[in-house]
Amino acid sequence: MAYREHTELAEGKLTDLRKSVVNAATLAQVAQEIELGPCLLLGRGEDAAGGRTKPSILSDALEAVFGAVYLDGGTEAARLLIERLLGPRMKVAAERLDRLDYKTVLQELTARLFDSAPVYVLSETGPDHQKSFSATVIISGKPTGTGEGRSKKLAEQAAAEQAWLALSDSSAE
User: Fold this and answer.
1) How many whole angstroms separate alpha carbon 112 and alpha carbon 78?
2) How many structural domains compose the chain?
């Protein structure tokens, strides 16, 4: 999808574009928007622990939906679904490719606004072969953004994006 829609972009930028849209945080957001959580069959413990709203479960469930559509309807059906759900995000991400490294732009913003650097607090869950990472970015002693990912880098980027958006909105007011 990225290659067909953005033939003008270099290979590295296409990779950045794909990574900005196809990640656990974005897939979880899409799953929430289409209200996938209530459709999940969960164990009693996971259901009681709020599993229907956990980003890691939602992103995995959406990936499973994509896979099921592919197996049932073929490549074209899966492509159409993915384009419908992720296409609008791809367009927005393409317009802001220069800002996709949120850790860098957040560091620049916090240096300007607070004369300090953001601090990332990481945690991990899951077995070694299937780790999931959570990051919280602390700015001037205050938690400002959180994110999850399958790597520390992805979790930090997601947290930085959330914090950058929050600070950008508040500094614009």
Assistant:
1) 44
2) 2
